[in-house]
Each structure stands twice: as C-alpha cells, then as structure tokens.
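Supplementary Methods, section 5.1.

A reviewer requested that the exact input to the structure prediction be made available. We therefore reproduce it here, unchanged from the version used in the analyses.
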Amino acid sequence: MTRQHLAGELSLILEELHAVPMDAVALHEVARLRREAETTPPATLAPVVRQAVELIDGVCWDLLTRGETEAFVREAAVYAELWEFGVCAGFLNEGRTNGVRGPR
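The structure derived from this sequence is encoded token-by-token as follows.
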C-alpha cells in the first residue's frame, strides 16, 4: 500500500464521521484533521491518526453519556475502523499509544 493510498484511506474514514451527530467544535476538528490527512506528507500521518483517535474517543464517551445509543454504535464502528487502520499502517501500537487505548 502506498503512502498516498494511506492518506486517502484516512481521509475516507474521517469523512464517515460526518454521519454521526456531534457538536460544532468536534465537526470543525474532524474537518481540520481531514484536511491535514489530505495535505500532510504521507510519512507524517501518525500524529493525525492519533489526534483522530483521541477525538473519536471523546465523541464516543459524550454520546454514551447522553444516551445516544444508535449514534454511539455508529461512532464506535468508525473508531474501530480507524484504530485497525492505524495499527495495520504502523501508525499506532496494538496496546497503548501516547495514552490512547484502542477499542476493546
């Protein structure tokens, strides 16, 4: 898989987040991360992936706290997809990465 393909795949995963209800700040952050994924040199995508994982983790907890079960399930699926992508691409470790723990 080429580095350009990795950037494109990350962008597509982040695009999936727009289908999940979240506040304006989180939506803005998703858009920023997507732009970074599309414009950052592919060799430096690891920080973008880690930031996206941290963002989605926070959104998942927010949805769960508010009792928005359906949205949580959709978001958790995207979270798992992003985590798997990050691990397979070598951007994340399977255990912990800078305090970010993967889905269980």
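The first strand starts at residue 96 and ends at 97. These observations are discussed further in the main text.
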